[in-house]
Design goal:
Helix 5 packs parallel to helix 7. The chain has helices at about 15-30, 45-55, 80-85, 95-100, 105-120, 130-135, 140-150, 180-195, 215-220, 235-245; strands at about 1-5, 35-40, 60-65, 90-95, 120-125, 160-165, 205, 225-230. The longest helix has 16 residues, at about 15-30. It is built from ten helices and eight strands. An eight-stranded parallel β-barrel has the order 1-2-3-4-5-6-7-8, surrounded by six helices. The protein has a single domain (about 1-245), classed as Aldolase class I (TIM Barrel, Alpha-Beta Barrel), CATH 3.20.20.70. By secondary structure, the protein is of the alpha/beta class. The chain binds 2-phosphoglycolic acid. 2-phosphoglycolic acid binds next to strand 8. 2-phosphoglycolic acid binds near residues 7, 171, 208, 209 and 231.
Length: about 250
């Protein structure tokens, strides 16, 4: 069983999100083999519509970002609890775009993880180093820090949290992390996680995954699934990834 998660970021509006969700649900209905766990992450505006489309199918829906308090005076924010009530199974937390564009700190990410767990949502905790950190030999340092802040003292059961290794330099650049390198990093992350929990924690890879390279990653035992951005926002490429991932 592997995870295949589609992060639509701010690419698709309501109409496009609903249309693409319908296509995916129709594709999954034709498939007998059940070796993929699928989820779509639409814009918040399309969230409830996409949930309606996916109802009764094998496709789950998740949020791209949430606030850490359940309710209150937080203009513009949507809480994990509200997402849960609207049908969210998963939440992307600490995506590099949130960290680097919107200035989220490790401590903010941790609060969101706690909020998701209290609301009964599985957080997908994104970690990753910048190109500069990688080139200066600081990759493990950065990942260690992010993991420690995210996981220290967490009391979770199997599959209640997911880690997504998404090197910042690989996101949306076409410069995907080489499978052998990904395998090494994922092995190291799995080892690091043992200091925080004995629960099973799936580790996904994300960063320039497309229909051509998807199989290289899914073939790795250390990669439990993929978080796909750009290539998941178009019907043709998402369908191609989906077909490649099922083989
Ligand atoms: P990408 O994005 O597939 O466009 O590189 C991945 C992500 O941001 O989750």
């Amino acid at each position: 069983m592997k995870y295949l998660f589609a992060n639509w970021k701010m690419y698709l509006g309501v109409k496009e999100s609903v249309a693409l969700a319908k296509t995916i649900v129709a594709m999954t209905r034709k498939i007998q083999k059940n070796n993929l766990r699928l989820a779509l992450f639409p814009t918040s505006l399309a969230f409830t519509d996409v949930v309606s489309v996916c109802k009764g199918s094998r496709v789950a829906v998740g949020g791209q970002n949430c606030a850490w308090t359940p309710a209150g005076a937080y203009t513009g924010a949507v809480s994990a609890q509200m997402f849960r009530d609207a049908g969210a199974a998963y939440m992307i937390v600490g995506h590099s775009e949130r960290r680097h564009i919107f200035g989220e700190r490790d401590s903010d990410v941790r609060k969101k993880i706690d909020a998701c767990l209290s609301a009964g949502i599985i957080p997908i905790i994104c970690i990753g180093e910048t190109r500069e950190e990688r080139e200066n030999g600081k990759r493990q340092y950065r990942l260690k820090k992010q993991l420690m802040s995210a996981c220290q003292g967490l009391d979770v059961k199997d599959n209640e949290i997911i880690i997504a290794y998404e090197p910042v330099w690989a996101i949306g650049t076409g410069d995907a992390c080489a499978p052998a390198d990904t395998d090494d990093v994922h092995g190291w992350i799995a080892h690091e996680l043992r200091s925080y929990t004995s629960a099973q924690v799936p580790i996904l890879y994300g960063g320039s995954v497309d229909a051509e390279n998807v199989h290289n990653y899914l073939a790795l035992g250390t990669v439990h699934g993929l978080l796909v951005g750009t290539a998941s926002t178009k019907k043709e490429s998402l369908a191609a990834i989906f077909r490649a991932a099922r083989v």
